[in-house]
Amino acid sequence: MRATTNSSSSRNTSSGTAGSTDGRTTGRRLRGGAWRNWAGTVTARPARTLAPASAQELAEAVARAAADGLRVKAVGSGHSFTAAAATDGLLVRPQRLAGVLGRDRAAGTVTVAAGTTLRQLNRALSARGLSLTNMGDIMEQTVSGAISTGTHGTGRASASLAAQVRGLELVTADGSVLTCTPEENAEVFAAARLGLGALGVITAVTFAVEPEFLLTAREEPMPLHAVREDFEALVEENEHFEFYWFPHTRSCITKRNNRAAGPPAPLGRAAGWVQDELLSNGVFRAACALGRTVPTTVPGIAALSSRALSARTYTDVPYKVFTSPRRVRFVEMEYALPRQAAMEALGELEAMIERMRLRVSFPVEVRTAPADDVPLSTAQGRETAYLAVHMYRGTPYRAYFSAAERIMTAHGGRPHWGKLHTRDAGHLAALYPRFKEFTAVRDRLDPDRVFGNDYLRRVLGE
């Protein structure tokens, strides 16, 4: 394996912070150097904290930490619900590694520093007349954190962010800086696209991009029975389809996104504010807080919520259609199921909620993805549907999540790496045909587990 230093990321490329640290949208720094994630489910108290300005500075710090017997973990924006980034050793914060590093017009790629947030990336791409093919529904994550935990959107043929990666730069446990592509360090590249931070610290990512296009979003309520009956047709007829089902109701909100010739017809500022900020965030937060305090009000709140969001259609550049603000704090579990099992599992989830007399104020989200070739991708090798369950932060969630997890695992579900679950390496190895391929790369790059922690020990083994 050849160790190289990429000069383009060995300088301070900061173009602003990689996300605020006030705790509203990112993980936050606490007194005494402690760190807490966005949802408040994980707190870390590292011995050292570093915000490197270059890959070489980081490589030297990793080598020193390893020599001192310290574990090393990088944190992004703190949007993972698990302890994947927790450490009591060296905590690496990426905010000084931000910005566009280069563009290859012939290859159709753009390279950015690892601490760049998806918001920064998308604005920079749009300014250049470019776009990602697909993305998730928030933009607060750093690019390295998003790919490393398997962030995805929904799409009939367009896959997760990790599947859109065409190269990356990785600092490994011995202080080497590796350039990884399908041609150079190919085995590391394959694994590190979704590496859980187990293989090293990513310092730069190269994404496939395309000329910016327009998407028309059609959002409208539909009865649950109609969505379940027509689910396969809705997926096949639309480039991007997803829906939200409100427990205790028979109602869904559906969203279809398809490419359009134009012209742009974006949401008006007032209309967008009412639906996205007031109803989806402000009023919804108040309703969830009431439901947490008085659980008997939840079914009524769910019925009102399912009726509050009206139908709308608009056309805009992709990132403004794919994403929306998420200001209500919650905890989440999400499982990736074989697509053909999704509606059966949703029916079982509905029956379970009523049988256990649970009170669930957050909708269940359903999305899809095509099969991909990333070893630890939740969509690796199979057409996939994602079922995500949420609870408002501070509301008891374990009974609901445990019961939901039993349903998902019975259908061969794979847990989202950055969201709450209880699965371990023994269970996960049977779900991923290329699991041993990944752990073999890990054994080679990090035999002493410099990048290990309790979460990785559970999901990847010793």
Annotation keywords:
about 450 residues; alpha+beta; eight-stranded antiparallel β-sheet; five-stranded antiparallel β-sheet; 13 helices; 21 strands; disordered N terminus
**Beta-strand percentage?**
15-25%
Secondary structure tally, helices: 13
What is the terminal-to-terminal distance?
Answer: 24 Å
Uncertain runs with pLDDT below 50, 5 residues or more?
1-26
Biggest sheet strand order reads: 17-14-16-15-19-20-18-21
Radius of gyration: 21 Å
Helix content: 25-40%
List how many beta strands DSSP finds: 21
Which structural class should the secondary elements be placed in? Answer: alpha+beta
Identify the overall geometry: globular
Largest sheet: 8 strands, antiparallel
Mean pLDDT: 90
Describe the secondary structure blueprint for this structure:
Blueprint: E1 28-29, E2 35-36, E3 43-44, E4 48-50, H1 55-67, E5 72-74, E6 90-92, E7 100-104, E8 109-113, H2 118-127, E9 130-131, H3 143-149, E10 165-171, E11 177-180, H4 186-192, E12 201-208, E13 210-211, E14 214-223, H5 224-237, E15 240-245, E16 251-260, H6 269-293, H7 298-308, E17 312-316, H8 318-322, E18 330-338, H9 342-355, E19 364-369, E20 384-392, H10 398-410, E21 414-415, H11 425-431, H12 435-445, H13 454-460
Parallel strand pairs: 4-6, 5-6
Antiparallel strand pairs: 1-2, 2-3, 7-8, 8-12, 9-13, 10-11, 10-12, 14-16, 14-17, 15-16, 15-19, 18-20, 18-21, 19-20
